[in-house]
Write a structure and sequence with these properties.
The chain contains 10 helices and 10 strands. The chain has 279 residues and is α/β, with parallel strands linked by helices.
Length: 279
């Protein structure tokens, strides 16, 4: 079994650098998809309340022969529950839905700058579940530098991670550097830009040169930069392909070529403008 490297978060919690993402996997397909990922070797699962498939992740964990401590599970607070008491109730529901007593990492999914409830209030609720031990670590997702600085100035717990959109067309070096200075690990969502980077000539050229797929090249770029990644696929061959990242390396020139593809291009919403609350 391939050994996936771990990253030590700022509170000492270890997180596997490669995980399996279940974004956009249908609820009734999530159990089987997650079980398949376990078979391949994944021990880190990234879900969210908004994905509506936490139950499938929990069912897969229960159906597997893995011990709870063998699997790192992340979930995220849905956007309509930013009020303090709502956040606490939503967190309780996540534990119940997953069928666990403790979650490894729980995130504020979006800062939601346009709503009346400030994310600082939300964060203080997450600090409570962290202090009582029901979350091993807490963090944020899609937070910009100014959001991070506000949290640190006005609250007690520094986020363990910031999960942001990162890929060769949006390298986010400035925000990643802010996170590094603050001791916050970076998780990269949409790591292959929803497939948009896979036919880029620079990436396909490197893939041909080293005998790997374009997706493996991009994911390896993330790994070597220090990002935590969790590619998503329900196709077993691609799930296996995405896991086979640790028997090769990119050289400095190849890393630089990929980083130079930055266009500031987002595949998802701008966190400064996104205020969507699911109905």
């Amino acid at each position: 079994m391939t050994s996936v490297p771990t990253i030590s978060l700022n509170n000492g919690t270890s997180i596997p650098q490669l995980g399996y993402g279940v974004f956009q996997i249908k609820p009734d397909e999530t159990k089987d998809a997650t079980l398949s990922a376990f078979e391949v070797g994944y021990r880190h699962i990234d879900t969210a309340q908004m994905y509506q498939n936490e139950a499938g992740v929990g069912e897969a964990l229960a159906a597997s022969d893995l011990a709870r401590d063998d699997v790192f599970i992340t979930s995220k607070l849905n956007n309509g529950f930013h009020a303090h008491d709502d956040a606490l109730a939503a967190f309780d529901l996540t534990l119940s839905t997953l069928g666990v007593d403790q979650i490894d990492l729980f995130l504020i999914h979006w800062p939601m700058p346009g709503i009346d409830i400030d994310f600082v209030e939300t964060w203080k609720a997450l600090e409570e579940v962290y202090r009582d031990g029901r979350a091993k670590a807490i963090g944020v997702s899609n937070f910009q530098a100014n959001h991070l600085h506000r949290l640190i100035e006005e609250t007690d717990v520094v986020p363990a991670v910031n999960q942001i959109e990162v890929h060769p067309y949006l390298v986010q070096d400035e925000l990643r550097e802010v996170c590094r200075e603050l001791g916050i690990a970076v998780e990269a969502w949409s790591p292959i830009a929803q497939g948009q980077v896979l036919d880029n000539p620079a990436i396909t050229g490197i893939a041909a040169e080293i005998g790997r797929t374009a997706a493996q090249v991009v994911l390896r770029w993330h790994i070597q930069r220090g990002d935590i990644v969790f590619p998503k696929s329900v196709t077993r061959s691609r799930v296996e392909e995405n896991f086979a990242l640790f028997d090769f390396e990119l050289d400095n020139a190849q890393m630089g070529m990929i980083t130079a593809l930055d266009q500031g291009h987002r595949t998802g919403p701008n966190p400064d403008e996104f205020n969507y609350i699911p109905s």
